[in-house]
């Protein structure tokens, strides 16, 4: 056994390794080896069972040993710089391998059919390479023990599987980020133990097959970014499914019967489809739901009161629909990490999310995934037909990061309770019918990076302190009675008719001048602090103190001799003032 993972920086294989012949486990991961694949290591150590070379700088082709190696069980060469083709006979030379991970390299060409000779293979990960062609039929027939097949982010194409399919124990199938076409193969129905099915970011067409709802072990289904069409299947869910990603397809129909019974759902993403009808009341039974993404559809009617029963919600995106009525004052949005700290976090909910979710933040659509989602929360109700006042209770969402209520018909004033949104980074209330002034309490929102109240009926002076001094004119335009920086107009300009506004025009920038007293005070404090820091450094460090006084002495002597040698010249042109 030899384990040097992450302990030393080698650059090359240790020389003593060339003289080892009875090793069973070798782990040389994370030590930046910059050579080729050590086929000699397999040739010298016929009893070797585990070989881990993860995250190095190994390059060149994958060279097989000279003879069959029947004892190797685990081979992991992920996250290196290997290139070229995967050896066509790899399955013949390594017939008893159970785990193969070659992800994160530069392999190209087709997947060798000889993988089908690995009858004991349980995990095959070839993701994040440059592989092309189709999935070999012999692989789907011969790898009878395969549990995980991960081919994500390559250039594979064609039909996913042929009819001759024998992967009955398959539990995880990830084919996302390729160019597969055709429909979802019926042969997957035989994978009764399938837990994860990710076919996203392909060119798959057709309808969602009804039998996917009968796969009782299925927990994660990702069909997003395809060309799937047709109505949402009715009675689709079994109780085990937790994450459902169907965004950016051509799905249509009503939600009424589609997902009833999916009571363990944590993620429901149906954004960018043609879903119609209303949000059904039974959604309030999804007690585990954390991410509800229904934006960019044709959903109408009011927001159901049952949404208030969902205490685990982190992200709510109902934007770009036809929702009407008031905003529910009981809506919730809290990050998973906050619920965990608060003691109300559900242990069954995931700490991190592997699949990305799109959410608009700071006017830009971002993809969030992994642990980032656990620390993120937001509500987006923009681009609907919502009416009424903004509930003051929304200000109680003190852990929310994004709130977007723009492009509705909301009335009333901006609630002063928004000053409690201590973690908010983006607040968009633009294109409504809000009136009154901008509450001065909002200047206490220290993390606010994007603020937009444009095209309302707001009035009064714009706050010009703290982060509000950084927002530009686009945040406030379209409000006739707002004045101050950065709109470059004051209250006098608003009260006078245009023909008599010369005085206000001449003074329109007066509110934008820098306070000179504050500038002088801050400059003086900064200057004193710099002197104190220099004095502290010289006091603490004897070496620098000695260097400092030596430098002063040398400078004084130079100045003295300069004056003596050039006294006449300096007197004539009065350069004595220059030395002061």
UniProtKB/TrEMBL annotation:
What does the UniProt keyword field contain? Answer: Leucine-rich repeat, Membrane, Repeat, Transmembrane, Transmembrane helix
Any single Pfam family the record assigns to this protein = LRR_1
- Membrane-crossing residue ranges in chain numbering: 518-540
On the tree of life, the source organism's domain of life is Eukaryota
Any coiled-coil ranges, and where? none
Regarding protein family, the annotation reads: Belongs to the RLP family.
Report the protein name in the record: Leucine-rich repeat-containing N-terminal plant-type domain-containing protein
């Amino acid at each position: 056994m030899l384990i040097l993972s992450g302990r030393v920086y080698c650059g090359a294989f240790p020389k003593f390794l060339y003289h080892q012949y009875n090793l069973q486990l070798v782990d040389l991961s994370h030590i930046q080896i910059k050579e080729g694949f050590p086929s000699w290591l397999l040739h010298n150590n016929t009893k070797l069972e585990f070989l881990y070379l993860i995250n190095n700088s190994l390059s060149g082709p994958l060279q097989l040993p000279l003879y069959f190696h029947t004892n190797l069980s685990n081979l992991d060469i992920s996250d290196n710089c290997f290139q070229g083709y995967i050896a066509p006979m790899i399955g013949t030379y390594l017939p008893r391998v159970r785990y193969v991970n070659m992800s994160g390299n530069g392999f190209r060409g087709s997947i060798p059919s000889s993988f089908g000779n690995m009858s004991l293979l349980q995990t095959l990960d070839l993701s994040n390479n440059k592989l092309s062609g189709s999935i070999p039929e012999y692989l789907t027939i011969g790898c009878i023990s395969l549990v995980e097949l991960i081919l994500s982010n390559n250039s594979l194409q064609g039909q996913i599987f042929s009819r001759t399919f024998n992967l009955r124990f398959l539990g995880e199938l990830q084919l996302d980020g390729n160019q597969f076409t055709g429909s979802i193969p019926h042969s997957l129905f035989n994978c009764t133990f399938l837990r994860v099915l990710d076919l996203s970011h392909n060119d798959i067409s057709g309808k969602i097959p009804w039998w996917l709802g009968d796969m009782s072990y299925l927990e994660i289904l990702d069909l997003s970014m395809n060309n799937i069409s047709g109505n949402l299947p009715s009675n689709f869910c079994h109780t085990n499914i937790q994450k459902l990603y169907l965004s950016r397809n051509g799905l249509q129909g009503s939600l009424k019967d589609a997902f009833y019974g999916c009571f363990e759902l944590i993620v429901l993403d149906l954004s960018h489809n043609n879903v119609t009808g209303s949000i059904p009341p039974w959604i309030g039974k999804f007690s585990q739901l954390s991410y509800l993404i229904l934006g960019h559809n044709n959903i109408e009617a009011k927001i159901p009161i049952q949404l208030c029963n969902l205490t685990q919600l982190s992200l709510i995106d109902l934007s770009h629909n036809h929702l009407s009525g008031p905003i529910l004052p009981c809506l919730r949005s809290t990050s998973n990490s906050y619920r965990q700290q608060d003691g109300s976090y559900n242990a069954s909910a995931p700490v991190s999310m592997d699949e990305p979710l799109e959410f608009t933040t700071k006017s830009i659509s971002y993809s969030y995934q992994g642990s980032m989602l656990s620390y993120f929360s937001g509500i987006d109700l923009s681009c609907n037909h919502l009416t009424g006042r903004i509930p003051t209770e929304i200000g109680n969402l003190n852990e929310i990061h994004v709130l977007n209520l723009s492009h509705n018909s909301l009335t009333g004033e901006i609630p002063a309770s928004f000053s409690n949104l201590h973690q908010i980074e983006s607040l968009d209330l633009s294109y409504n019918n809000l009136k009154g002034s901008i509450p001065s309490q909002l200047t206490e929102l220290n993390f606010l990076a994007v603020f937009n109240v444009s095209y309302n009926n707001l009035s009064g002076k714009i706050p010009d302190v703290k982060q509000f001094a950084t927002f530009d004119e686009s945040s406030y335009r379209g409000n006739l009675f707002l004045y101050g920086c950065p709109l470059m107009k004051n209250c006098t300009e608003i009260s006078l008719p245009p023909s008599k506004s010369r005085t206000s025009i001449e003074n329109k920038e007066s509110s934008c001048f820098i306070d000179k007293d504050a500038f002088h005070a801050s400059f003086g404090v900064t200057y004193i602090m710099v002197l104190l820091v220099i004095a502290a450094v010289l006091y603490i460090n004897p070496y620098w103190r000695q260097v400092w006084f030596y430098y002063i002495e040398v400078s004084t002597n130079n100045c003295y001799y300069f004056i003596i040698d050039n006294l006449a010249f300096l007197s004539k042109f009065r350069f004595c003032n220059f030395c002061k």
